[in-house]
Write a structure and sequence with these properties.
19% strand; 197 residues
C-alpha cells in the first residue's frame, strides 16, 4: 500500500462497555456475550507488537459542551446526562482490560472518532493511510468513523470480530453496509496480516 496502519479503538470506555455505565443496560450484555473485549485486547497487543500505533477515542462532554451538537437523539441523550461524560468522570475512563494499551487517547463530542479534533491530520503527518477500527457500537461510532475515514481518503477496515452492537443482527447489517462503503471489514487475523505488509 505504501503507507502505514494505525488502529482506531473507539469508545472502549466504562459508559459504553460496563454494566454500570450510561449505556450499560443496552450494551454491556451483548458486548460480554460477543467476546469482543477479549479479542480486541489480543488484537491491540498484537497490532502494537507489529508496529501499529494504538489510538483510543473517548466520548466526553466538557463543561460548556465542547463541540457537542444536539442534532440527533443520541446527542440529546448524552447532553442531558453530560455530567456522566465529563472527561474526569468514572464513566469516561477506558475499561480496565484495555486501559494500559493506548499510545494516544483523543476525546471528542462526535460519533466519528475522526471528527472534532486534528486526529486525521496527525495520522496523515505520520504517513498513515490505513485505519483498522475496533469498538462499540458497530452501527454507531464504528460505522460512522469508518465512513468518515473513507471520505477523508483513508483505507478504512473495521476489525469485525473486535466490534459489537446491541444486537448481532444489527452488527452484521452494519458490516454488510461497510463492505460496500469502505475498504471492507476484516477479521483480526486478516488485519494483523495487513499490518505486516
Amino acid at each position: 500500500m505504501g503507507g502505514t496502519c494505525a488502529v482506531l479503538a473507539l469508545h472502549w470506555q466504562v459508559n459504553v462497555i460496563s454494566p454500570e455505565g450510561f449505556f450499560g443496560a443496552m450494551l454491556s450484555g451483548p458486548v460480554a456475550r460477543s467476546g469482543a473485549v477479549a479479542r480486541a485486547e489480543r488484537f491491540h497487543a498484537a497490532a502494537a507488537e507489529a508496529g501499529a500505533e494504538l489510538i483510543f477515542t473517548r466520548f466526553t462532554v466538557p463543561a460548556g459542551e465542547g463541540e457537542l451538537v444536539r442534532n440527533t437523539a443520541f446527542m440529546r441523550a448524552v447532553a442531558d446526562a453530560q455530567e456522566s461524560f465529563r472527561p474526569e468522570a468514572p464513566g469516561t475512563a477506558l475499561i480496565p482490560e484495555l486501559a494500559a494499551q493506548p499510545d494516544l487517547v483523543v476525546d471528542n463530542q462526535k460519533l466519528s472518532g475522526l471528527a472534532g479534533s486534528d486526529l486525521a491530520d496527525r495520522l496523515r503527518a505520520r504517513g498513515v493511510d490505513t485505519v483498522l477500527i475496533t469498538g462499540v457500537a458497530t452501527n454507531l461510532t464504528v460505522e460512522q468513523t469508518a465512513r468518515h475515514a473513507t471520505e477523508l481518503g483513508f483505507h478504512a477496515h473495521v476489525v469485525a470480530d473486535c466490534a459489537a452492537a446491541a444486537e448481532e443482527a444489527v452488527h452484521e447489517a452494519s458490516l454488510a453496509n461497510l463492505a460496500l462503503a469502505t475498504a471492507g471489514p476484516l477479521t483480526a487475523a486478516e488485519a494483523l496480516a495487513l499490518i505486516g505488509n
